[in-house]
Specification:
Layout (H helix, E strand, L loop, with lengths): L7 E8 L5 E9 L4 E6 L8 H11 L3 E10 L7 E3 L1 H16 L9 H5 L5 E3 L6 H56 L1 H17 L7 H14 L3 H18 L6 H21 L3 H21 L4
Parallel strand pairs: 3-4
Antiparallel strand pairs: 1-2, 2-4, 5-6
Helix pairs in contact: 1-4, 4-7, 4-9, 5-6, 7-8, 8-9
Length: 297
């Protein structure tokens, strides 16, 4: 069986060209459609559109949250001299040294240590570096999507086994219902004969033709063969969907509604305690089927 669940988790980590560590975490749960919640650090907004497109290509249903975390290493800022401040400091130091007899020439490190001579260089990455960062993050996101798809397929395999077991249970109940349904006309006849005998108290005999006509009318109203036939067709359709590649969750959910209609009608038309119990067991099995079908992509 090739179905996928909507539940899964994936994680990808790595490092950017500047040494910054990153972690992608993707989580997926059930959803009526496809909804992506993307959490990106400031400055990476241009990544949002292509990442959303990539998710839309891979998945059709599910509430997916994708979070990117960055961990910057502690780095000392790179220092660079301020040309104007350096020139002013040199002139000042030389002028002071010239006024002191025997003063050695000023040392370079002393000049550079003066306030305002050195300043921290801006750490803004160049356009090329920023593109390289985005490319690394996009590749890692694609790998995380692969892992998420694999996780959802793995959950889908477990889900398919559960669904197959439930369909087998429904099929077994249908077979028992077929046997009960075959006995309904005789049950109607006996019930009607007993009711008439009680009302008439033996005063007169009911013609067999009249009795047969009444039984036929009741049997027609309570005939469940059509419901059981449709139930069999729904079972075949559900098994075909489970073997189909690609997202089938919406169609499977719709099919469970059709299952429910047949089981409700079966219970309403029941003329025996046995068939009523089967209808109730069917409803219970169908409720479990509906719950599991809601997990299918």
């Amino acid at each position: 069986m090739a179905i996928s669940s909507m539940t899964g988790f994936a994680r990808q980590s790595g490092a950017l060209p500047d040494g910054t560590g990153f972690v992608w975490e993707l989580r997926s749960v059930n959803g009526r459609g496809l909804d992506l919640r993307l959490r990106l650090p400031p400055g990476l907004d241009p990544l949002e559109a292509p990442l959303r497109e990539a998710v839309g290509v891979r998945f059709k249903r599910g509430n997916i949250s994708a979070t990117l975390s960055l961990k910057r290493e502690e780095q000392r800022p790179r220092l660079t001299p301020d040309p104007a401040a350096l020139e002013q400091a040199i002139q000042l130091v030389l002028a002071v040294a010239a006024r002191i007899p025997g003063c050695p020439p000023p040392r370079a490190e002393a000049v550079l240590a003066l306030p305002g001579v050195l300043r921290a260089e801006a750490a803004d990455p160049a356009a090329g570096e920023e593109e390289a960062r985005r490319a690394v993050l996009s590749r890692a996101f694609a790998l995380a999507l692969d892992d998420l798809a694999a996780a959802r397929r793995g959950e889908g395999e477990k889900l398919a086994a559960i669904l197959a077991t439930l369909l087998d249970e429904i099929a077994a109940l249908r077979e028992v219902a077929l046997g009960e349904a075959a006995a309904q006309p005789a049950a109607h006849r006996a019930r009607l004969r007993a009711a008439l005998a009680e009302m008439l108290e033996g005063e007169r005999r009911v013609p067999e033709e009249r009795l047969a006509a009444e039984v036929a009318l009741l049997a027609q109203k309570s005939d469940v063969r059509e419901e059981l036939d449709r139930l069999g067709a729904h079972l075949a359709a559900a098994r075909a969907l489970l073997a189909e590649p690609g997202p089938v969750g919406r169609r499977l959910e719709f099919l469970t509604q059709e299952f429910g209609r047949e089981s409700n009608t079966l219970g309403a038309k029941s003329a025996s305690l046995g068939l009523t119990r089967i209808a109730l067991d069917l409803k219970a099995a169908l409720e479990r089927l509906r719950e599991q079908a809601a997990n299918v992509e």
